[in-house]
Each structure stands twice: as structure tokens, then as C-alpha cells.
């Protein structure tokens, strides 16, 4: 039996100008830019629905270090170990899709569209394809000139809510509510056993017993570090079911479950769990705000010709 989930059409209207970024930045310089990105993401999504989770993680891990400047895309060299090779970024993927989009854009509009904007536009398209909100993305970012593995200090899934909330506020300028909103991206994510095995060694009272039994069986298999959806219900849809799951003690990661228990975040979780439309609108706004963190604009940075390497400079 097939279960068909029909989601309403969400169209979020945002300001045309956001800081130094602007909706429609490439209208004159590269009119087909956004459609080229959208087509490439659609083609990948048709083959692999998990690309949405990959792009959301890639986007966040880029913005969380030096701001949204595509520094995560840079390859390491003999003289520099880049962000991409941090242990934190071991499972980050989607690089090949960004590279493919960049090649197409370079053919259409050489040295015009930044890799940072490609990440943002690609993520926006993937979110919409997965049933999430459709929203405008301000563009005009330029690519960074630094990528240093030593600067990657993103808190892990066992960090307490207070530490992660402080990180979001200090590094991204986001409120606790916006942090909880962006954790909604876990609705399409997965986690490997190594990230939550400590919750299984002795039964965690904050985890649903049935889920505990399921995960113990999964992690006892012969597979090398198997994974499971963070949303055990609608794992390929950007919806509010993740919040309903963690309220029911079905959070896989410790941090996810703590969001539903911590007094500073539980109210937001409960609100989003009961109001899907509010989550969709809040998610779109939080994605736009995060995507505008510490961006390089104007004459700052560069427009890379290839996303994985800095341009050659004299």
C-alpha cells in the first residue's frame, strides 16, 4: 500500500534586499543562473532524495565557520589543510553537485556566479523539492580566500543545549528560537550509530523503549557503522514531524531529544509540533538569515572559477 502525503503549497515572501544581498542579483549579469541551479538539483533529486539533507548540512557547515563564503568547498593542499578535511566534515557531501553546477554556470556566465551563492540556491531548491517552503533567496555573495581546518569548531550532538544555543548566537547571530527552527532540518537527516551508541549501552530513560530496541538491533548488525533517519516517520520530507517525534521521546541524537526537554527550547518544539505552517514560515526565514551571516560582498573575496580551489593570484 502506498501512502501519499499531500503538503500545502507554501510561498514565503521575503524582503527584496537583505543586508548587502539582493533578490535577483544576477538578473542582468546571468539571467539563467537560478534556473541552471534549480535544474541541476532537480536532476539529482530525481535520482537521490537524500540530496536535500546533504545540502542542508553542507550549507550549515559552511556558514558556521567563516560565514557563508564557500570555504568548506576548498580542497586541501600540501601547505594547507582545509575545512573539508576536518573530522567534523567527514560525512558532509554534495560537493560533486556544487562542482557540476559551477561548470554549467561558468559556461553560461564566466566568473559571475559565486560558489557561495550556488550552495545557498541549491539548498533552497532541494528544500522546496522535499515539500518544504518555497522562498526567495537574496544573492550577491562572494567566495572566501581562506579555508583552515583549525577554524572548524562546530559543537557535536552530545553537547548540551546551552552550549549549542550559545554557538548559534555567537557565531551565527541566531536566536534560540531560530536555532530550534534550523534543527528542523533533521527531519530529512540521518545519523550513524557512532553518534548515538552511548545512549544505547544502558537504556536511556529519555528514549522511547521501542525505538531503543530498534536502534540496538540496528547497531548490533555486521554493517560498518549503519545509519538511521533522525525522523523515524517522514524521513524524506521537510515537515514538522521531527518535532512531534522528539516530544514522543523518539529523538535519535541526544541533542535532538534534549531540545524537547530543556526548559529554554521545549516551548518552541511544542509550538512547531502543533503548527506545521508556522514551522515552514519560520524555517524559510531562519535559512535566509543564516545564509546572510558574515557574507563577503562587493569587492571582497573573489568569484572562484572552480569551487574547490582558490583562483590563481599573482
Automatic annotation (TrEMBL):
PROSITE patterns found in the cross-reference section: PEROXIDASE_2 (PS00436), PEROXIDASE_4 (PS50873)
Gene Ontology CC, one term: extracellular region
Site feature (Transition state stabilizer) residues: 57
GO molecular function, one term: lactoperoxidase activity
Amino-acid positions noted as binding Ca(2+) 2 in the UniProt annotation, renumbered to this chain: 187, 231, 234, 239
Cofactor(s) listed in the protein's UniProt record: heme b; Ca(2+)
Pfam families, sorted: peroxidase
EC number assigned by the record: 1.11.1.7
GO biological processes: hydrogen peroxide catabolic process; response to oxidative stress
InterPro entries: Haem_peroxidase (IPR002016), Haem_peroxidase_sf (IPR010255), Peroxidase_pln (IPR000823), Peroxidases_AS (IPR019794), Secretory_peroxidase (IPR033905)
Disulfide bonds: 30-109, 63-68, 115-307, 193-219
Cofactor binding summary note: Binds 1 heme b (iron(II)-protoporphyrin IX) group per subunit.
Listed name of the protein: Peroxidase
Amino acid at each position: 500500500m502506498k501512502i501519499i502525503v499531500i503538503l500545502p503549497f507554501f510561498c514565503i515572501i521575503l524582503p527584496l534586499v537583505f543586508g548587502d544581498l539582493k533578490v535577483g542579483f544576477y538578473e542582468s549579469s546571468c539571467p539563467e543562473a537560478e534556473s541552471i541551479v534549480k535544474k541541476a538539483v532537480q536532476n539529482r533529486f530525481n535520482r537521490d532524495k537524500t540530496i536535500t539533507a546533504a545540502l542542508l548540512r553542507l550549507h550549515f557547515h559552511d556558514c558556521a565557520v567563516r560565514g557563508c563564503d564557500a570555504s568548506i568547498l576548498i580542497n586541501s593542499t600540501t601547505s594547507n589543510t582545509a575545512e573539508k578535511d576536518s573530522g567534523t566534515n567527514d560525512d558532509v557531501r554534495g560537493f560533486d553537485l556544487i562542482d557540476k553546477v559551477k561548470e554549467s554556470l561558468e559556461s553560461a556566465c564566466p566568473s559571475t556566479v559565486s560558489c557561495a551563492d550556488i550552495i545557498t540556491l541549491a539548498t533552497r531548491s532541494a528544500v522546496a523539492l522535499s515539500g518544504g517552503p518555497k522562498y526567495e533567496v537574496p544573492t550577491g555573495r562572494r567566495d572566501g580566500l581562506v579555508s583552515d581546518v583549525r577554524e572548524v569548531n562546530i559543537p557535536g550532538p552530545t553537547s548540551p543545549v546551552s552550549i549549542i544555543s550559545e554557538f548559534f548566537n555567537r557565531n551565527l547571530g541566531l536566536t534560540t528560537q531560530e536555532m530550534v527552527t534550523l534543527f528542523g532540518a533533521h527531519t530529512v537527516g540521518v545519523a550513524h550509530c557512532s553518534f548515538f551508541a552511548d545512549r544505547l549501552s544502558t537504556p536511556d530513560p529519555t528514549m522511547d523503549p521501542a525505538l531503543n530496541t530498534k536502534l540496538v538491533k540496528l547497531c548490533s548488525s555486521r554493517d560498518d557503522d549503519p545509519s538511521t533517519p533522525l525522523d523515524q516517520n517522514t524521513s524524506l520530507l521537510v515537515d514538522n514531524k521531527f518535532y512531534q517525534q522528539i516530544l514522543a521521546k523518539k529523538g535519535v541524537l541526544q541533542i535532538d531529544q534534549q531540545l524537547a526537554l530543556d526548559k529554554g527550547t521545549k516551548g518552541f518544539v511544542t509550538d512547531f509540533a502543533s503548527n506545521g505552517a508556522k514551522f515552514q514560515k519560520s524555517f524559510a526565514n531562519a535559512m535566509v538569515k543564516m545564509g546572510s551571516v558574515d557574507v563577503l560582498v562587493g569587492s571582497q573575496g573573489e568569484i572562484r572559477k572552480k569551487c574547490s580551489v582558490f583562483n590563481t593570484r599573482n
